[in-house]
Amino acid sequence: MRTIIKVKQERGVVITPRVVIPNDTKMFAQASAEPDVFAFVSADAEAKKVYDMLDNPNFEFVNIREIK
Question: 66 φ, ψ to 5°?
Answer without folding.
Answer: -100, 0
